[in-house]
Amino acid sequence: MNHLITVELQKFVVENFLLGQPEETLAEDSSFLENGIIDSTGILELIGFVERTFDLHMEDEDLIPANLDSVRKLTLFIERKRASATKEASA
């Protein structure tokens, strides 16, 4: 798992949703929804951040909890998206 992506995501979530609490308070596997970290409006903000920061376009079918509900899930999703984009560009 790409540590740089994880750190960037944790920083964003802590600064924007946990109001600057220490980054250690957000475990990589903490569910954003179950723990009340991010609500539905916050998910939209998170999606915008991911698209801008990691130069990705998220399709409707990408917008599921399996991809977006924790730092770990989001990091793995970003890695898959990047790998897919690289494969398509080289084909």
Question: How would you summarize the topology of this molecule?
Answer:
Elements: H1 3-17, H2 40-54, H3 65-68, H4 71-90
| Major β-sheet annotation | none
CATH fold title: Non-ribosomal Peptide Synthetase Peptidyl Carrier Protein, Chain A
List unreliable stretches of 5+ residues.
none
SS summary, helix count = 4
Q: Report the principal-axis shape.
A: globular
Number of domains: 1
Task: Tell me the number of strands.
Answer: 0
Mean pLDDT comes to 91
CATH C-level class: Mainly Alpha
Termini separation comes to: 25 Å
Strand content: under 5%
**Global structural class:** mainly alpha
CATH architecture: Orthogonal Bundle
Order of helices and strands: HHHH
Provide the helix percentage. Answer: 55-70%
Task: Give the C-alpha Rg.
Answer: 13 Å
Walk me through what this model shows:
The model has no long low-confidence stretch (mean pLDDT 91). The protein is globular. The relative contact order is 0.17. The protein contains 4 helices and no strands. The chain has 91 residues and is mainly alpha-helical.
